[in-house]
Design goal:
By secondary structure, the protein is an all-alpha fold. Helices cover about 45% and strands about 0% of the residues.
């Protein structure tokens, strides 16, 4: 149970702990689900197989592809106005 205190912010403590220092399981579940939802929303938590909530590392290109892109000259037309 101690691991939950590591992921729940202090603001949840007053709701989760009863006056006799017992844990209100319903509020604990709500707090855990809320923190999980927030973690997914800000990409601290990724969901395997998801298109929207995949790992940050999956969005990066590989070193080999980066090196290949460096070798290719991109002749893109750029329009600009000189003053």
């Amino acid at each position: 149970m101690n691991f939950l205190w590591n992921i729940l912010p202090n603001r949840w403590t007053k709701y989760v702990l009863e006056e006799d220092r017992s844990i209100n399981n319903t509020i604990m579940e709500i707090a855990t689900f809320t923190q999980t939802k927030n973690g997914i929303r800000v990409s601290d938590i990724s969901l395997e197989g998801s298109r929207n909530h995949k790992s940050f590392d999956e969005n990066l290109i590989s070193k080999a592809r980066m090196e290949n892109n460096k070798k290719i000259k991109f002749d893109l037309p750029v329009s600009y106005v000189l003053d």
